[in-house]
Amino acid sequence: MDADAVTRLLGRPRVLGLGEPTHGSTALLTLRNELFRQLVEEAGYRTIALESDCMMGLIADEYVASGTGGLDEVMERGFSHHELGAGPGNRELVRWMRSYNDGRPAAEQVHLIGFDGPLEMSHAASPRQALTALHSYLGEWVDAGPAAVLDELLGDDDAWTNHDAMMVPSASIGRSPEAQQLRLLADELTSVLDTQTPYLIAATSRDAWDRARLYARTATGLLRYHACMAAPVPDRWARLSGLRDAMMAANVIAAAERSPVLVHAHNSHLQRPISTMRMGDQQLEWWSAGAQVSARLGSSYAVIATAVGTIRAHDVGVPPVDTIEGHLDSLPAQLHDPRQLPTGFAPRRSPWFGYAPLDPAQLPTYDGVIYLKEA
Fold first, then answer.
1. Entry pTM
2. Which of the listed residues 133, 199, 279, 364 has the most CB atoms within 10 Å of its CB?
């Protein structure tokens, strides 16, 4: 992928989203890695944000910055969605970033962040790690209250990660008296972090304070998510989806305060239009991370969607000629300006649930489209 072609089309947006229509494709990850390398070397980008747990991402970034821990350990502990996160594409990315940073001053180093919350399809994490880390940071410099109170309110982590809670609201402890007290406590700790910002940055460092902000965002986000899991309301799934994407957006915007960011995630997390999904007889709607970032950053956000032709391993064949993918398949270029493409495409139907073709109605909302003939 030619970063020069990207910057000629889009300039150098503070946040550049690179979407993918399916996860785990070697071809897509190779394209991402090469684009990020060129953006670092030619366009001043310094951060890549991946659709992975933001807390686990701290382990990966520490290795990228300093070499702490072996590569195997980092791939095991530094990524969520393990069957995808620890794959060869991300491994090669981490290896290159460590090599790039070796011997460079901190101001010139590249960073890797996870921008997803500590969430899985089956459960949400306990807020313990984020809350205790925030409390520990504050407690060294200001009065943050006794840690024993926090530990007592958190209770057993197994109760937080109960898989039944995803489907059965009554199985969640997210609205228990203890959880409600924890939300107040998280808000108070965040307030202390905010009001003591000048002192804390001077006493610690901007990096340490930024990490504490991540702890605060994650703790409050998780507690909101658990409270929503416990709510027996008709639009529960839409609310949960919206909360997850809001956490994603907040992490991306925080990263963009420090340096230009390449964000890599599923196309659906980076789109500008409202997201929709049918679940049973319900039509769910929520705003994606890309929509949130775009609304807040305006022209400082740009998004490139990726489309693919065939995925042989999953019986996704050559695209019909009347679809977006079918039209792009006939063109020699890889990167396209959506404004220069024709209209009136038919929707493409995928025989495999793991691949989402581009929606013709959304084509004008993207700033660029990359097409790969095979993934």
1. 0.96
2. 133
